[in-house]
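#onboarding

Welcome to the new folks! Below is a worked example of what a typical request in this channel looks like: someone posts a single protein sequence, and someone else replies with the predicted structure as tokens. Don't worry about understanding the tokens yet, we'll cover that in week two.

Example request:
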Amino acid sequence: MDVVSDAISAVRVGRPSFSRLRVSGDWAVRLAPYEGAGFHVVLSGACTLLPDDGGVPVPLGAGDVVLVPHGAGHVLADAAAGPDAARRAVPFEEVRKPHLPLPGAGPEVGLLCGKYRLDRSRTHPLLAGLPDMVHLPDGDTGSPELRAAVGLLARELDEEGDRPGASLVLPGLLDLLLVYVIRAWAAHARTGGWPAALTDRPTAAALRALHSDPAAPWTTDRLAAAAGVSRATLSRRFTSLVGRPPMAYLTWWRLTLAAGRLRETDAPLATVARETGYGSPYALSHAFSRQFGTTPGRYRDRGARGVRAS
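Example response:
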């Protein structure tokens, strides 16, 4: 596994939900803050995104993709929307029924809006480092995979999602959309350690090694050898870009994996310990309690509700 796949897998819960919206004229819909990551794909026409925090309005055109990674509230409105759009916005829940049009004079806008359900108790720092909004315009040619996914989504929806196999195809394409958006953000981000970590050769090699086999008996020396650099070089670069020394990151990731296994399976504690690189259930329990503030058994019993890793 690679770090992007693991970061998404660790936090995602269930399948993405989505609705198609057709609107025209003077319109505005409000999406309240929520747990999860929201997304919008502009299938046709043009509109405006107005952040709740008073940020600069973002014009959107056909083919544009927007990811709202942290569930921030916002308004979608017609392309000519003024300052009053936020006040007149209709709650999205009132109009999200599939294919429900909001009538009005003017060109029609087609939107695919939805959200990914996320477990915030295990958020990977790669996802935590995403900005409040990631906007990828259609004219951005740096991600042909993203453009292809948008094209396939539009084609599937041309027939109202009634094509054979659509119930599998659409969620699969939306999963791909999330991966491609994060890839594109990492490739274009100007600041932040994680985008650089994914492209810095020694750091990326070390991350690949840790994520490929987190249960291996890693040491900094062994990891430096796998990355092809000295111990000092790896420690300096990895810590600077990732925010933790290599072994501290490995401990955090092992315990994040253990939390997922405890929550999602009935595997015995000894099995979870072995799969995550701990020599005994006692060793896992000690490390787990130190990071999560509770024992593995209690974490499993409570379903991890309200428990957050440090």
